[in-house]
Amino acid sequence: MESNKTNFKKKSVWNWAPNRPVENSPLFEWPISFVKIISWIKLNYFSLSIRIFVILMALITWLLATPSLWSCKEFAVSWMAWIYCRNLILIFLVAGGLHFFLYTFRGQGDKLKFDHRWMAEESKLFSFKNQVFDNMYWTLVYAVSFWTAFEIIFLWSYANNLLPRITWSSNPIWFVALLFVIPIWHSMHFYWTHRALHYKPLYDRVHSVHHRNISIGPWSGLSMHPVESFIYLTSIVFHLLIATSPFHLIFHLQFLVFNAVIAHSGFEGIVLKDKKIVDVGRFHHQLHHRFFECNYGNAEMPWDRWFGTFNDGSDGAMKDIRKNRIL
């Protein structure tokens, strides 16, 4: 009987939720399990995943759609405008493509959709009284502008030898290792900046723009106040401190952008012919949008476990967090 009550309660809260508790990656578990770590690496780097998508996207962008470093030595409208237009095209392809499939055409109905609700219309909560138009406004006007500005400044810095730099031929092992290190750095940066944004004065003036999205979609990922967009993208200060390359910069920025877009899709996965072909949304972060006071980081690193704000999706998790949290 108790089991039926629990299932009914979960069904009333979610349209769909994982059967097992949300977990962190095994990278920081103790004792170390090399079997779990190898399995996690295979899942994220040797199968169809967000990381592989972003690595391929960054590689294509760097090789085929980025001006030569020689041309970036001076701030010129031609190459800077090209990067801005290229980034606009990319965001429309990824966020727009996901939105059209999942929400406009409802290509898989509500299969694997976390929230019962769809995007809000005729709601005074959002600009233009429309959640999608609101989300697109904050994304296209602010997030894409900061993304482009950071990319331009850092490419100019590489071109003028103002940043520590490596190449594939000079250090191939570190070149590849950075594709593992950058997401871990992002996880740490995201937890602490995101946690700071929940400080009430910052939340009320800045972060509340993003949190209007309780039921989320692809355009919600970068729907942020300009101050938050700027803070979120400052993860790339990493490249001021560590020797990287322009390819790693592009990968880092695209990981920040497209990981946010795809992880906010509102669906756990893309379904074709009743079979999930790829994971997209993150229930870990969906719980944050529903309950606000949990899961400030992501599943890459266990910051939320360490500081008592981890919600694994089980009944009573929020009560335990409010009772036992450290900060």
Written description of the protein model:
This protein is mostly helical. Helix content is 57%, strand content 3%. The chain has one domain. The protein has helices spanning 2-13, 34-45, 50-64, 77-104, 131-159, 172-197, 200-211, 226-233, 238-241, 246-263, 283-291, 303-306, 317-324; strands spanning 269-272, 275-279. A hairpin with a 2-residue loop joins strand 1 and strand 2 (275-279). The model is unreliable at 1-9 (pLDDT under 50).
Number of strands: 2
Radius of gyration: 20 Å
Helix content: 55-70%
* Rounded average pLDDT: 93
Task: Output the helix-strand order.
Answer: HHHHHHHHHHEEHHH
Protein structure class: mainly alpha
Quote the distance from N terminus to C terminus.
37 Å
In this structure, how is the largest beta sheet organized? 2 strands, antiparallel
The strand line-up of the biggest sheet is 1-2
Number of helices: 13
General form? globular
* Low-confidence spans: 1-9
Portion in beta strands: under 5%
Count of individual domains: 1
Please summarize what this structure is.
The chain is built from 13 helices and 2 strands, in the order ααααααααααββααα. It is mostly helical.
SSE order and pairing:
Elements (H helix, E strand, L loop, with lengths): L1 H12 L20 H12 L4 H15 L12 H28 L26 H29 L12 H26 L2 H12 L14 H8 L4 H4 L4 H18 L5 E4 L2 E5 L3 H9 L11 H4 L10 H8 L3
Antiparallel strand pairs: 1-2
Helix pairs in contact: 3-10, 4-5, 4-10, 5-8, 5-10, 6-10
Summarize this structure as a short list of keywords or feature phrases.
3% strand, mainly alpha, disordered N terminus, two-stranded antiparallel ribbon, single chain, 327 residues
